[in-house]
Amino acid sequence: MPNAEILSIGTELLLGDVLDTNSQFLSQQLAHLGIDCFWRTTVGDNKGRIKEALKIALDRSDIVITTGGLGPTADDLTTECIAELLGAPLELDEDVLARIREYFRQRGITMPDSNTKQAMRPRGAELVPNRTGTAPGIFFAVGKESLEYADIASPENSRVIVTFPGVPSELKAMWKEIAGEKLRERFVPSAIWSCELKHVGIGESALAEMYEDLLSLPNPTVAPYAGTGECRLRVAAKAETLEQARQLAMPVVEKIKERSGIKCYGTDDDTLEVVVGRLLKERNMTLAVAESCTGGLVSKRLTDISGSSKYISLNVVAYSNDAKERALAVPGEIIEKYGAVSPQCAEAMAWGIRRAAGADIGLSVTGIAGPEGGTPEKPVGLVYLGLSAEGFYAGKQLNYFNQLERREIRFRTSSEALNMVRIFLLEPAWLAS
Q: Which string of DSSP letters, residue by residue, matches 9-43?
């Protein structure tokens, strides 16, 4: 099987100013194709070091994918470095230049002369169109034995370089529209079908133990992966056609769904907020959220989904004690006696937001995200959730005691809250147990 290397280009990556999510996305997509990614390299905006990194990558990889360095400024050097390394003259592509000019014209802006640089491509390279930005990528064949550009129509005699801009949304669109399929056609003789089964409420090691009998399967394969507050099982099968591969994998997928039960919340592109929204719409129910320590993160995740106004009408961030009393009608004596971070306050918040919104479900979050505010009795990482509905209430305590940073406490809490709603919509008795 072919192997690949991802070369991320940009000094901002080395300085830590920008998180390299492009490499993560590309690694995932290569895995879906069945192409091994053995190396990921990051290099700054320096011509000598970029060419050195390209040469090393080509010496050991069949596929070299670059991200970044395709902009119009002087430090955008990727295309220029490839052309110099492979002895391929840069040529102006008039069609690309016209498209870039039109991109600016539609926005009422005169194209800067510097953007002409983005219409230059090495002789012999195919374009990877960029329909959402100004920087197209290239698909470039390189000889098997020498650093010379090769006939792109002869895959058996060549390696390839594929370039992408550093803007994640542009890269993803280009991959999905053309680049991923071109690599599959060129390097993957068989079809690979895969499915990620997403789990919450169980850790990676526990999940691996639960499916120990499946992890050694040769085809389809099953592998566990950890995430923030959740984990996944990836089932992948290989066959002559995609449909044959899918049929080979589906019995294992169904076995995992049955065994995992409610712990498996979705597959592939599903997120907790997507699943919760889908369930609310199916049941024609509405949800209202009262948040304290998460500061609106639960609401943000819910309303990131298009069409969420069908099931969300009123959410409240009640950070202070006074706000909890005024906006949610939390009795002052509850806060005085038990404190804002207490199961009693969480319950009052859940009922209060449900009444205020006239919603079917009220969800509440209150806790201490830190790093300040903790006490020996109520340390940082103590969180209470509440869920109210007609004739129903369930509470939950979360304990992240001094183990996580503020950002992760808030995100994990938001996932636990969303999962609480999901379970209520599916199996309320399980939640109440």
A: E-HHHHTTSS--HHHHHHHHHHHHHT-EEEEEEEE
* Cβ-based neighbour number of residue 68 at 10 Å: 29
Q: What is the pLDDT of residue 433?
A: 65
Q: What is the pLDDT of residues 140-193, one digit of tens each?
A: 988 876 666 555 555 555 799 999 999 999 999 999 999 998 998 888 878 889
Pairing of strands 221-226, 264-267: unpaired
Rounded CA gap, 328 and 196, in Å?
40
Instruction: List residues bridging with 361 in a β-sheet.
Output: 287, 389
Report the b/e string of 213-224 with b at 16+ CB within 10 A: ebeeeeebbbbb
List all residues 6 or more positions away from 201 whose beta carbon is below 8 Å from its beta carbon.
262, 263, 419
Contact 10, 45 (CB under 8 A): yes
Instruction: Encode pLDDT of 203-248 as tens digits.
Output: 889 999 999 999 999 999 999 988 888 999 999 999 988 899 999 9
The three-class DSSP label of residue 105 is helix
Evaluate whether 101 touches 128 at the Cβ level (below 8 Å): no
